[in-house]
Amino acid sequence: MAGEADREGAEAPFWRTTTLEAMSEAEWESLCDGCGRCCLNKLEDWDTGAIAWTNVACKLLDHGTCRCTNYPNRAEIVPDCISLTPEEVRTLSWLPPTCGYRLVADGKDLPWWHPLVSGDPETVHAAGISVRDRVVDETGIVLEDYENHLVEWPARVPRAGISPRRPAAKALKSVIGRRRA
Ligand code: SF4
Ligand code: SF4
């Protein structure tokens, strides 16, 4: 139930207390961290159903912000763009492990870099979660060339995305140095 207090007495955020189905439209939309991973083209093996990621991005994806450049009209321009529903979140096997919808559907909390936690839309890029500057536009790329664009990182969580923010190694070394002195 929304508004429930957590163990520390602070009000728990909505994604811990509200089911995907019960979220308001604004809450639902805010669960998207803006990574852009789901806007990459994927290859599906017709025999096994196995999914392979590519770094080939939808033509509407902004490679810097990692947001859709025409979100309200995307269905008309890109007919195979998927508008996620709670049911799809629970059944689509390829949703990235970092995806805010997938995390909440799996009963997990949102990580430090999620804009809803950090309050900063840049942290999803700083943590190496987003597709910023590592994708190519699909325009002009023929299907036969997709195999030259296979990548595995969209299905992974980078190290910086797992760990809470810590002092950089250099800073930690200097603290140890001071203690020894
Ligand atoms: S993978 Fe999930 S969090 Fe990332 S852009 Fe797509 S819907 Fe949003
Ligand atoms: S139309 Fe927009 S939301 Fe859909 S895949 Fe393309 S960039 Fe992503």
UniProtKB/TrEMBL annotation:
Pfam family, one: CxxCxxCC
Segments crossing the lipid bilayer: none
InterPro entries, alphabetized: Puta_zinc/iron-chelating_dom, UCP006173
Similarity section: Belongs to the UPF0260 family.
HAMAP family: UPF0260 (MF_00676)
Name of the protein this chain belongs to: UPF0260 protein F0357_06575
